[in-house]
Predict the structure.
Amino acid sequence: MWNLEIENIGGIRFGETSLSPGSNIVQASNFQGKSSLLAAIQTAMGTTGQFGEQHPLMERADEGHVTLETEDGTYKTTLERTVGVEEDTITRSGDTYLTDEQDQVAARLFACLGENNPVRAAVREKDQEKLTELLTKPLETENIDLRIKNLQSEIADINDDLKQADRAMDKLPAAQEDVTQLEKELEELKEQRDELEEKVDEDTEQRDLRNELTSKQSDLDRKKSQLERLEKQIGRRENQLEQKQEELEELEVPEELDLDTNVNEKQERVKELELKINLLGDLYRSNKAVLDENELALITDVERNISGDTFDCFVCGQDTSEEDVQEQLEAIKQKQQSLEEQKAELDQEISKIQQRKREIRSNRQKKEELETDIKQLKVDIQEDEQEVEGVKSDIEALEDEVEELDAKYEEAEEEEEEFSSELKTVQQKIGTTENKLSRAKDKLERLDEEASGRDEIQAKLDEKKNELKELRQRRNKKYSELVDQFDEAMDEIMNTFAPGFDGARLDKTMDTNKTIDKFEIVVAREVDGKGRNTDLSNLSEGERELVGIVTALAGYRTFNVSERVPCILLDGIGQLAAEHIRHMIDYLEDTTEILVTTAYPEAGSFDGRTISPDNWEVISSEGPVTP
């Protein structure tokens, strides 16, 4: 059982009601709050304010709220109006039954099946492109496409790491051979040194000078190698810095404030159009019903003539005929369709802006990452440059020391000059070889580390590829399931309602990446005894509404909306005959725990719980109405 308390929502100034499991039929005439009740339920669920719609705060009211009490808890949702210079803004606060954005989007599209349901509207307007956008919206809310794009980027980076690991594996044998060869050379040089030392009778001072000279020469070689590595590292980091700065400059991140302002303006315009569309629709349907049911006598005096009936216009009081009224009604209908086209265009623009906002958020995150990387690279380069200066200073000092020691050693050489000079050369070679061996071992260790991480990189790559595959499969699986659910629901509807067409299917087209690119509803109808495919424009208004509801129900089942919210709201089915309305209620009652729908009193009685707005305080088209 759901209990609702409503204040200043839609046309309800104040009202209370309860919803029971099963069917709940709000039965009343126009302007008694039927649709406003559904808007209040949507407000409590958190599904208002989407797809260019405004929150349903009562006109001229500063604040309104809905309190929903369920077995799981109580949710109070408040709508507030902020008066602006050019337009007002309505914001929602408090608790809603649904809090997750994906749940809210799925429920709005596939559980809130009022006349302004976006899916029904797209089918009604024969807008296949808009329909595709709406049917794929729940997956878009999951950011699947963005996640796929990010995964593809990650996979490219991991592939680079894998190639580097493969190159390291290829270089390992040669690096190991270099180490082995240098170790052998070093051993031979040390044996040669030992032999020469026996031949050279050096005094302690000369030997100390030679050892110190060899040590300093070895230090000098190491410093020069260190300088070379640092300069290469600075070069690599400067290249990375340049690439990231170029990427940052190319990254477009406009202010979201401008987009928000633009969206708000368009949403306000959509709200105005919706109001006008609904008013024109109500005007058209009510007058059309009077003419279709031949009940002019209920509201005006009809003069029956041989040439045709005439009567006083029940709006302006002037003499007119049914043909003139039909002509005016057709003009109203065309005006309504023109406004609906404007609204559809605005909805599409709003959707594109919202998509742009999501891209901006992604780009903003990328910008922050790039700025962090650039800042760190600048710090690293600065530290490297400082280290280079220190190493250069050390090299200068060592070169002076080596030159000084070399001069002293030459002065100390008196006898055994030939062997002493050769010994000195061997000592220098030993120092140089030791440095080469140290660098070769470092290289071997680095290559071994890179190569040993190959399995881990491959495992990470496989994991990312599987994740990418699962995302693509989830997207395509859901799209295929949507088609199957549409076919199943359409078969059930055909058996139950027997409409004036022979069936319909939801076709899907694939892009070059074998990903579903577009959905299109194709209608089957027998013409001259032959089955022909046709489009939605050849269906009646009631048949299109039926197909729209079927399409929304396919989404309801595909995206497991029953697990998100235990109710379906149905409104705006006056085009269906009373018998078909009963069929629809019976059909939906088996689909959801709580069904809330609307009906006119002339539709007769229904099974289930009837909700009467008699005790509500509502705002009718003529002003306040209180019981």
About this structure: The first strand starts at residue 2 and ends at 9. Residues 148-250+382-468 form one domain.
